[in-house]
């Protein structure tokens, strides 16, 4: 067993330090790239020695499994109908992440009653076995989407440079802030043509959120508009896997690194990833001696 595996085992046995960081990926406008980014981001995170579950929480138009090219036998429909436990439908995929498939096509599920929703979100919380859980939500301000966003530790709001997407991003930030003023909100600008455009759009959203809502939004980065993304959707293989050197993939790895490093930099190394980084850092120092 190598040193990393040993350390990992040690930490996993020490359950009190275990806490899954949940990150909901959401947007105001639909079709801005949430699912594409969620899938590739989950894989990118997993390349950094952390474990990741990707939950497809878009109860209307689930498509994480489509992007990954798999046909799961069971999905959230079976969980919500009480036929399966959430942990029974977790699938391990070759990309080294676990996924929980959404209930595609069962549109009536998009409007769960309050009890169904609470039961479901509680069962998600019970799945506390990985370092990260990425939750791909539907777009907009429906209570289902907001319930996931509010339950998560952090939220990534995805927008594109289109004015309509920016306006709707502002709208969703406003709804989140109204219900959870302390929620950590990050922004990713997708489909940018240049670094300057990525920065300009992020700054605009951050400024208006600060000025009109008094909400601090953090810029997590941008993803280039890249033909590799739609090509990968058509081939049903995530762009991070099929085009690892593409501009979009490079951007996603930077975002993944930021997510992991930030926890250490903030000194908030409560979750396992930060804990690991600190642990590795101290052993590296010892080896240097
Ligand atoms: N960076 C990008 N470059 C080029 N095309 C992109 C990029 N990101 C997303 N797309 C394209 O945009 C479309 C929508 O992407 P995706 O399904 O990921 O969005 P979504 O926000 O999850 O949509 P929905 O709101 O329906 O869930 C896809 O066809 C995808 O190929
Ligand atoms: Mg989607």
What's the short version?
The chain is of the alpha/beta class. It contains twelve helices and eight strands. The C terminus is likely disordered.
Summed over residues and divided by their number, the pLDDT gives a mean of 83
**Shape annotation:** globular
Tally of individual helices: 12
Number of strands: 8
User: How far is the N terminus from the C terminus?
Assistant: 23 Å
Helical proportion? 40-55%
Order of helices and strands: HEHEHHEEHEHEHEHEHHHH
> Strand sequence of the main sheet, in spatial order?
3-4-2-5-1-6-7-8
Structural class computed from helices and strand pairing: alpha/beta
Bound molecules: adenosine-5'-triphosphate, magnesium ion
Q: Assembly state here? A: single chain
Strand proportion, as a percent range, falls in 15-25%
The main pleated sheet reads as:
8 strands, mixed
Description:
With 289 residues, the chain is α/β, with parallel strands linked by helices. Helix content is 48%, strand content 17%. It contains twelve helices and eight strands. The protein has helices at residues 3-13, 34-46, 64-68, 76-80, 114-126, 143-151, 163-179, 195-213, 228-235, 239-242, 247-265, 272-288, and strands at residues 21-27, 52-56, 91-93, 97-100, 132-139, 154-159, 184-192, 217-224. The protein has an eight-stranded mixed beta sheet, sandwiched between helices. Helix 2 packs across helix 11. The longest helix has 19 residues, at 195-213. The model is unreliable at 267-289 (pLDDT under 50). The protein binds adenosine-5'-triphosphate and magnesium ion.
């Amino acid at each position: 067993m190598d040193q990393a595996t040993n350390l990992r085992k040690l930490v996993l046995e020490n359950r009190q330090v275990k806490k899954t960081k949940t990150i909901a990926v959401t947007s105001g406008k639909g079709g801005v790239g949430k699912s594409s980014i969620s899938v590739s981001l989950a894989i990118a995170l997993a390349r950094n020695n952390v474990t990741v579950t990707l939950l497809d929480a878009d109860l209307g138009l689930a498509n994480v499994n489509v992007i990954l090219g798999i046909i799961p036998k069971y999905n959230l429909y079976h969980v919500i109908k009480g036929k399966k436990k959430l942990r029974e439908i977790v699938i391990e995929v070759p990309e080294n992440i676990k996924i929980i498939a959404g209930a595609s096509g069962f549109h009536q599920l998009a409007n769960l009653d309050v009890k169904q929703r609470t039961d479901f979100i509680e069962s998600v919380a019970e799945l506390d076995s990985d370092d990260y859980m990425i939750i791909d939500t539907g777009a907009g301000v429906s209570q289902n989407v907001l319930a996931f966003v509010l339950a998560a530790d952090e939220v990534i709001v995805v927008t594109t440079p289109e004015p309509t997407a920016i306006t709707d991003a502002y709208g969703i930030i406003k709804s989140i802030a109204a219900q959870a003023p302390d929620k950590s909100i990050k922004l990713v600008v997708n489909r940018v043509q240049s670094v300057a455009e990525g920065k300009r759009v992020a700054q605009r959203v951050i400024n208006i959120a600060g000025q009109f809502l008094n909400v601090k939004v953090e810029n997590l980065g941008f993803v280039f508009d890249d033909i590799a993304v739609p090509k990968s959707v058509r081939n049903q293989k995530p762009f991070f896997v099929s085009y690892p050197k593409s501009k979009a993939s490079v951007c996603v790895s930077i975002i993944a690194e930021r997510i992991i490093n930030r926890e250490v930099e903030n000194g908030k190394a409560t979750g396992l990833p930060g804990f690991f980084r600190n642990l590795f850092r101290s052993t590296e120092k010892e080896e240097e001696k």
